[in-house]
């Protein structure tokens, strides 16, 4: 009985409390996608939800038809089968409706793809380089400020500071909120991928190539991501930690960071 209660509470409690703190990283027993922190992530989630409705409707509809066929036209219920082979209106309908459904998916999909691609006039740039196995960050618009960011090892994790195992880093990337930030992604050794779910970004970091993406963070907070391209033995241990702060706070951080650079 105790075990069941414990099991139930571990399922239910995260749901009850999941809204009390802004969700920046995935939670145990989380349902659904991470709370969005950029317009791109918001649109991705809207698109995902739209597809969920569509898929659910199609699955139920096809399942209904099949169940009807199994019952109505099995050998017992329908011993003498019809020899009908063509039905032109029906064939037009079952070609046209799926085509319209595909168009209804393709149109917003391409629109979103181009929206995600790049920002026309970025206010600042962050360059990210993937290494085996950490990330390097550069702020080319801010006197070339640059630093490396490595995962904090398990034994040094300080939970009193809110540090998270396998997610917190020694040098946090600080970015201003409400700013169009161009992110240039590359790698120095093998292919990595910069992925931050709350920002809706997952961009390959390819050696010798500069890939572009962008964010406009709408809520201050700490956001986590991980390398999402299998890059070697410590692939799982090169997290991304981004701290989004108001612009004034970002300027203050810049002054401090440049001193230590
Ligand atoms: Cu990697």
Protein architecture, described:
With 261 residues, the chain is of the alpha+beta class. Helices cover 36% and strands 22% of the residues. The protein has helices at residues 2-17, 39-72, 88-117, 247-260, and strands at 124-131, 134-139, 145-149, 173-176, 181-187, 192-196, 201-205, 211-215, 221-227, 240-245. The strands form 2 sheets. A 5-stranded mixed β-sheet has the order 3-2-1-5-8. A 5-stranded mixed β-sheet has the order 4-10-9-6-7, with helices on one face. Helix 2 packs antiparallel against helix 3 (88-117). The structure holds copper (II) ion. Copper (II) ion (CU) binds at residues 130, 192, 227, 229, 231, 235, 238. Copper (II) ion (CU) is lined by residues 130, 192, 227, 229, 231, 235, 238.
Would you spell out the secondary-structure blueprint of this structure?
Elements: H1 2-17, H2 39-72, H3 88-117, E1 124-131, E2 134-139, E3 145-149, E4 173-176, E5 181-187, E6 192-196, E7 201-205, E8 211-215, E9 221-227, E10 240-245, H4 247-260
Helix pairs in contact: 2-3
This protein binds copper (II) ion (CU).
The site of copper (II) ion (CU) has 7 residues, from loops.
From the structure above, extract its key features:
single chain, 261 residues, alpha+beta, Helix Hairpins, Immunoglobulin-like, 2 domains, five-stranded mixed β-sheet, disordered N terminus, binds copper (II) ion
